[in-house]
Each structure stands twice: as structure tokens, then as C-alpha cells.
Amino acid sequence: MTTQVNNEGSAAANILSNLSIREKEPETKSNELGQSAFLELMITQMNNQDPLSPQDNTEFIAQLAQFSSVEGLEKLNTQFETFSGSFMSNQALQASSLVGTSVSVPTDSTMLMPEGIVAGSVDLEQSTSDMRISIYNEGGSLVGQVPLGSQPAGELVFRWDGQYMEVNGELLDWTMGEEPAGPGDYRFEVNANVDGKTEQLETSLSANVNSVTLGTNGEIILNLAGVGAVDIGKVTQFN
User: What are the record keywords, sorted (predicted)?
Assistant: First the structure.
């Protein structure tokens, strides 16, 4: 019985030795060093076991199974990292196509481009009896104030070209004067009277995408005119 187990152990040792030799060939990948060391350790363990009380073959099989699982996880991690890198590169490539286009992000300031339009929106949680949009230039001076009167609850969308204001698709009978405001940075302040109190509402404004940057952690940053650097995840609308 002892002879049979020793013969099986010797045969296994020969097989494992051949595997160990192959692992040391020049084309071996660097991440297979652990497998070579593991096999050498198993061979040493088999060569130094007690002939009268040899180790059960099932223990060797269990050890091989455990190593195979670890090796499989390492390969899976490598493949996932490769896929993740490819995915982020593809995202960056797609995001680069946004350069020169307009997106909407949560902000109260943006740039009016030459012959361009600023699109904005606010969410009213409840109706208001009095609402107005105030527009300030880069120096902080008020350049125009648009009275909107009472408005129902819901989303209110406006568009401004520097002179005329359109709200929810309707052109208002209001202008900033004979000459439109020129290109530049402007701040929008939307106030509404709710339950007798005046509240400033959060606005989302359109901005031109000047460039795209890929962050160190893989995040995609849009550099917006008049706004600055904004994570692409904060974009509320692609115009």
C-alpha cells in the first residue's frame, strides 16, 4: 500500500516538476511567478513527507484547486482592468465630440456666446403669485429684470438671446432695449413669491463646451464657457 502511494507521489512529482520547468521558460509572464513558486513548494513537500504516513492525495488536489481559484481571480482582475481602461477611453472619445456643443448644468452663471442663446430652467414645487428673472453682467450690475407674474407649479423653461426672453415657448412682450446685451458672462437670479415669502430658486443654464479633460480617477470633466470645470455626471441636458 505504501509503495503504491509513493509511486503515485513520485509520478505526481514528475508531472509537477515538468510544469515547474515550463513555467520558467522565457515566454512566462511575470504574474505566473507565484504559480512556479507554489509548484516548487508542493514538490518539496512531497519529497520530504513521511514514507510510512504519506500525505493524502486529496490534500494536494485541494491545494491545487485553491491555487487555481486564486489564479483565476487574478486573471479576471487583469481582464476587468483592461476592459475598464478601454471603457473609459471610449467614454472620453465620445465626450470629445461634445466640444463646441451646448449642455445644461446646475449653475447661476454662464456665457452668452456671439449670436448665441442662453437656455435655462427652474423647478417650481408649488405655484407662485409673483416670479421674476434678474440678469446681472460680469461686473455685478443689473442689466435687465423680467417680470413673469403668477406661474403654476412645475418646470419653467426660458431662453434669452441678449435682448428678448422666451418662456415655455412663448415670446414675452419685453426687451432689454433697442440694443441687445453683448457677448459675455452673465448671472441669472430667479425669485418667486411662495406663501408670502420671496425665495431664490436654483437654476440650470446652458453653456458651451470648450474642451474635455480625463481626470486621474477616470472621471470626465467638461470645461464650460462662463462656468468652469464640471463633471459630466452633473449635466442635466445635452442641447
Answer: Bacterial flagellum biogenesis, Cell projection, Cilium, Flagellum
Parse the chain into domains and list their residue ranges: 2-96, 109-206
Which class is domain 109-206?
mainly beta
Query: What would the pLDDT profile of 17-49 be if each residue is shown by its tens digit?
Result: 544 444 455 554 544 445 566 667 667 776 776
Whose CA is closest to 129, among 202, 201, 173, 191? 191
* 184: confidence class by pLDDT, cuts 50, 70, 90: very high
Predicted confidence (pLDDT) per residue in 104-120, tens digit: 999 999 999 999 999 99
Rounded to whole angstroms, how far apart are CA atoms 186 and 158?
15
pTM strictly above 0.70: no
Rounded Cα distance, 101 and 224, in Å: 10
All cell numbers assigned to 186: 452673465
| Residue 40 Cα distances to 4, 36, 117, 150, angstroms | 23, 6, 72, 82
Burial class (CB in 10 A: 0-12, 13-18, 19+), 110: buried
**219: helix, strand or coil:** coil
